[in-house]
Structures are given as structure tokens and as C-alpha cells.
Amino acid sequence: MININTNEIAETIKMIRDEHLDIRTITMGISLLDCADSDIDAACRKIYDKITRYAKNLVKTGEEISSRYGIPIINKRISVTPIAVIASASKTDDCLPFARILDKAASETGVNFIGGYSALVHKGYSRGDENLIRSIPEALCSTERVCSSVGVATTKAGINMDAVRQMGEIIKETARLSADNNSMGCAKFVVFANPVEDNPFMAGAFHGIGEGDCVINVGVSGPGVVKSALERIQGQDFGVLAETIKKTAFKITRMGQLVAQEASKALGVPFGIVDLSLAPTPEVGDSVAYILEEMGLEKCGTHGTTAALALLNDAVKKGGVMASSYVGGLSGAFIPVSEDAGMIAAAECGALHLDKLEAMTCVCSVGLDMIAVPGDTPASTISAIIADEMAIGVINQKTTAVRIIPAAGKKVGDSVEFGGLLGAAPIMPVHSYSSEAFIARGGRIPAPIHSLRN
Amino acid sequence: MRAVVTVMGIDKPGIIAGTSTLLADNNVNILDITQTIVQNIFTMVMLVDIENSKLELSALAEELNALGKRLAVEIRIQHEDIFNSMHRI
Question: Residue B11: phi, psi to the nearest 5?
């Protein structure tokens, strides 16, 4: 007989059937370095040909693996080399053709998002960076599947405050251009400190310069499974709590490892990493906030939330790291507000504020994610929110990110609906005192002392 | 290639007969079979060899799913590696 007993089989099936265990994404990273060309039309042609050739069977393979193992694989996606690098080679100041060709390639291969309309400007701008960043609002609002990100800070370089200032303007402009669609364009744009090169999750995925020609990265999920496991140990001490999360994370990650290996084999592409992130969805029972509440907090956002999230994030990593030969990406717990039923409820009832979310980002894997703020929030305030978040990442030597939606025409008390996995977000209040003069300074915030480790 | 067939639901006559007939018709060999009650739900687990199956795993899964609907139970078939990888180091 199979060396697995009936209870274990039943446990696996229960996780999939009742607790929303799934593989969140198989993301194929494709290098476009060999597609650079001084003629932008030639570059676009090469990009389209390479992506459609490499990712031709990505969606089909994902579906086959899903059917063989009986585990849902929600998204099949593509990440590419930051386009600003490729754009630097072309004799043009207009980057939009790159966005359109990425969108077309994504549509042809059947993936729902393609990430990498990106630039890394933590220390300064090259010509390609300038052109790409300027085009981001229109690129996001005139394409369907293209995701964009900009790295504006690293622990090694400090914070590029010129870029931070521009990001506030870019986000406002994107919100304005997609005003008739709930400022949806902003949901496809992330600002990073210490971005990682192998993140499979959107909207921040791009294929780093240090990566190979093509690679398969897999993101697992399963907040519902962790929540259910915690329901069985009510009232027990933190040692038991951490141990239970670790064991659960191990099991979840093993799924990711299996799927990553199978996808890598079937597609003939090297396996990169498994990302251990607990990524929530708006579905009931698939929430990170509810895990925190299961630990004993009346509402996510109340005092104790940061400690609870710290424990969760750490235990997820410890459990997952042994389950996979290569762990990477962001690996931890995500706290996107609009994509998490518990976060939405906590924000709506006033338990969860932006300031508490900022504190939570010190101990979780990413940052301020899918947060809707009033449409009349000044660009400088958005830049200041970004600056705070970048400082947390730079000083703590971790990735932090901001994905914020100043929803055009909306005010506190309203809510915006993005639909699908992106969910719906209540408009959260921001501080009304100005940060204008601070943001107007420009220049760079120097790298912290602990960056000097050499 | 081995797979695990699981049947979950309310016990009644004909579940094993129906499932094993469908498997036999498709030249799937049953290697082992156990049944138990897990959390008040009748659970039958079959280890099957699908090496010589007339149908691909995905097509077999569809047939079993349809049979499950007729019998008012849930029937799944999954490659055994999902259980091995999750529960064994």
C-alpha cells in the first residue's frame, strides 16, 4: 500500500477542498537582454517572438499539472527583464510600444499578468529609466495585463528622493487616467525598496539582471489552511502556536516544490525558487487578518497585531524553508488590504489604520499593499507615505513596497471595487498635515551605516 | 504510474461497485483499498495503477467526477506524489 495513511490523504483533500489551499502562481521569468535593439520596432518584434516562443505551453502545462495532482493553480504569469534596461538601447524616447507588445504577448500566451515594465533607480536615472517612468501612467491605463514596478531605494544605496517625489506624481496621474475604472491602473503599479529579482507575485514581479535566460518560479498560498490549523489549538501557548504554523507552512510549501519541479520538467526550463508567501484572496476563509484574529485579537489592527504578524511571518519562513530546496521571492505573509476579507472588515469598522499597517510592514514580507486613499490626496503626501515605507525597508534590510490607489473622486467612507483577486477596498484616511516641503527637497537620503559591511 | 482515488460522502450501497466498475472498464488496476470514517464522513481510499489506463489521468478524473455526482459523493483521483511530498520528508 502507499505509505500514506487515510487520515493524511483526507487532510490534504480537506486543505484543497475546504481551506482554499492552492498554488497561487506559476511565473515564468524570461530574460529580454538579447532583445535590445537600437530600432524599437526590431526590439519589440524580438520581445514578442521570444516571449511567445518560451511561454507557448505555460498555461497548458499549468492546467495539466493542476489536473494530475488535483490542486488548483490559480495564475499563470510571466515576468521579464526590467524594460527600462532594454529601452535604453533603443533610439527613441517613447516606451509605450514596449508596453503594448508585452500586453499582446501576454494575451497570446494566455497569462493574466506580465510583470517587468520596470525600472531600478535607487541611485539615479538613466535615459531609459526616465523614458519608461514617464510612460507608466499611460502604459498602465492603455494595456490590460502589463504590471509595472520601480525600485527607488536599497539598503546599499539609500533612498532616491527625486524618484520618490516623482512616484507620487506618477501614481496620481495613473489614478486620473483610469478614473472611470476606479483608478484601477494604480493596482498594477508597485514602488519598491530592496526589490527581489525572483518574485513570482504580481504586480511587483520582474526578471532580474542576475537571473538566467528563463526560469520557473512558483508562489504558494494558503492562509485558510493556517487559520484552520490554529482553530484546533485555541488557548495554547505561543510555542505551540509557532510550531503549528511551521508544520502547516511546511506542508503547503511541499506542494509548491512539487508543482515547481513538475512545471520545470514539463517545460524544459530550470526551476528557480518557491516563494513561501501566504497570499490572501477576497474569498471568505482565505484571509491573513483572520489568522491574526484567530490568535486572540478581537480585530486585526488592534494592539498586539504587529507581534502576531511577526510570529506568523517568521514561523511561515521556518516551516517553509525546509520544504523546498530553493526558497526565494518575498516569502512571508502578505497584507494587501483590498484582497483580504478580514483586512477589509477591520478597515471598515475602524480597527485598522494606515499607521498600524505601516507598523505591520516592519515585520511582514512586503509593505503597504492595495490601500485605497481619498482621490484628493496630494502627490506629496503619497510620496511621503512611500518615503516612510522605503525607510523601513532600507533600515531593516528587507523588501518593502507601496501599492496605493488614490481613487479619483472618492473620499473616506466610500469604497472601490476592483473585482476578481484584487477585491474591494474601503477608502482609508491619510494625515491631513502637509509633507510638501519635505518631499520638495529632492536628492538622496544616504545609505544607512550598516550598509557599510565590506 | 500510481494514483489515489478518494471517495467521500454518505455511505450507501453501490459506491465501491460503481467506482471499481468504472476503473475496470478503463483497464485501471486497483492495488489496495481501505475505507474508514474521517470526521463523520465516509472515506474510501484506493491506490490504483493507471499505467495501462485507456484514459489519461485528466479524462479519468472527469469520468470519476461524473460518477460521483450520480452517486451523490465526491470522487477524486490524484497522482500519489502529492500525498508523498506533503506528508513525507
Answer: -70, 140
